[in-house]
Design goal:
Distance between the termini: 33 Å
Low-confidence stretches: 1-67
Strand content: 25-35%
Shape: globular
CATH topology of the largest domain: Quinone Oxidoreductase, Chain A, domain 1
Helix content: 25-40%
Mean pLDDT: 87
Largest sheet: 7 strands, mixed
CATH class of the largest domain: Alpha Beta
Radius of gyration: 24 Å
């Protein structure tokens, strides 16, 4: 028995690469040793033979902490059907066939996570505790399951959070974003507010390794903004974004980047209104203090805007959108109203010739390539939307900020 050259741990073999081969992740070997270290692609991995001598790879425990050696991780779990969440120790999952195990570097709080945390009406009807919360993230692949070919250990990945079946008529005709068999990370299956998470290979989006994990973690909600705005023509158009939550704020920057002639934004929270201006809005409206309809008509010479991107879910704002859009214009709806909405269709939609788009998720994977292209172009800057960063243990601070609305995007770091 000799010592690992990286850390003072015993190892049973001096050359694991020669014995096991360069790729050992998820494989099996009959030699009953329990620990060694190896280097591959510039990374140092611990190889641990668990029950059945399964080879599991993770970063060196001396460098990264002891939890991996114990098979445990910290996670924010919705334990019971009640408001709140709890930071607990749970078992580290393993990657099954077609899956990858990711060490989470950054995870961002979404409005959906907040709904689950406060246990609103939607959450009560959808979530079945216990469940690890969270779905937006970025991390490093540390294990690949049987049959995985497109993802390798060491890749830095984000995830398409909607897990679709791939076989229904909608999936087979390019409409997987509305697959009726969709399961969502952190909603229907365990999520990513944890040190490790398992996702299907097909849901992994490989990032450049030099990208900020915090920024990489918010590509999924950025995709919502991109999908909403690009669901019709936008170049040279006037755009109003109603609701300046994180997706609405990113939509301001996207509208500016893709060539809108003027970008307006409205909200009732002054903190977020100020952020919208920082993100590039030409004119912002505090709907709690001023008449947004009157302001929009003044800014557009009485015509209304070409596009309303509705992000708030407010019933009154949804109704008013039909007054603020010009005849022949477009309303793209992403915000979710809590109750049914009654509309005057004859005058406000049919006779005005308004196009209404319902937007859900991201087009698979068209939107992801659009996001990648926009970020690579240098014309889209979404960094100002990240306003707070916390260790995972401080997740409650993030939820309290979401309660107040005095934040943009909040990022959690499980391994700090």
């Amino acid at each position: 028995m000799s010592l690992c050259m990286i850390c003072p741990r015993p190892k049973a073999i001096d050359n694991p690469v020669e014995l096991f081969g360069p790729t050992v992740i998820g494989g099996y070997h009959p030699i009953p040793t329990y620990f060694c270290c190896m280097e591959e692609n510039g990374l140092t991995y611990s190889i641990i033979l668990m029950e059945g001598y399964k080879l599991i790879a993770g970063r060196c425990p001396v460098l990264e902490g002891e939890n991996y050696m114990k098979g445990q991780m910290k996670a924010v779990v919705k334990e019971t059907a009640a408001p709140g969440g709890k930071l607990v120790q749970v078992g580290i999952p393993t990657a099954g066939p077609g899956e990858i195990l990711v060490k989470v570097q950054a995870a961002s709080i979404c409005g959906t996570d907040h709904h689950i945390y406060i246990w609103n009406e939607w959450a009560r009807g959808r979530i079945k505790p216990p469940k690890i919360m969270g779905h937006e993230f970025c991390g490093e692949v540390v294990e690949v399951g049987e049959g995985v070919t497109s993802i390798k250990v060491g890749d830095l990945v984000s995830a398409e959070t909607h897990i679709v079946c791939g076989r229904c008529p909608l999936c087979l005709t390019g409409k997987g974003h509305v697959c009726m068999n969709t399961h969502i990370l952190g909603v229907d299956v365990d999520g990513v507010f944890a040190e490790y998470a398992v996702i299907p290979e097909g849901n992994a989006w490989v990032n450049d390794k030099d990208v900020d994990p915090g920024l990489a973690s918010i590509q999924e909600p950025l995709g919502n903004a991109v999908h909403t705005l690009l669901s019709g023509e936008i170049i040279g158009k006037t755009v109003l974004i109603t609701g300046c939550g994180p997706i609405g704020l990113m939509a301001v920057a996207v509208a500016r980047a893709v060539g809108a002639s003027a970008v307006f934004a409205s909200d009732i929270n002054q903190y977020r209104i100020d952020l919208a201006a920082k993100m590039g809005a030409d004119r912002v409206f505090n709907a709690a203090k001023e008449d947004v309809l009157k302001g929009i008509l003044k800014e557009t010479d009485g015509h209304g805007v070409d596009i309303v991107a509705e992000m708030s879910g407010s019933i009154s704002v949804i109704k008013q959108s039909f007054d603020m859009v010009k005849p022949g214009g477009r309303i793209s709806l992403l915000g979710l109203p809590a109750k049914p909405v009654e509309l005057e269709l004859s005058e406000n939609l049919i006779f005005k010739g308004v196009t209404v788009n319902g937007v859900t998720g991201r087009l698979l994977y068209d939107t992801w390539f659009q996001v990648k292209g926009l970020l690579a172009s240098g014309r889209l800057n979404i960094e100002p939307v990240i306003t707070h960063r916390f260790a995972l243990e401080e997740y409650q601070k993030g939820m309290e900020l979401m309660d107040s609305g005095n934040c943009g995007k909040v990022i959690l770091y499980p391994n700090r």
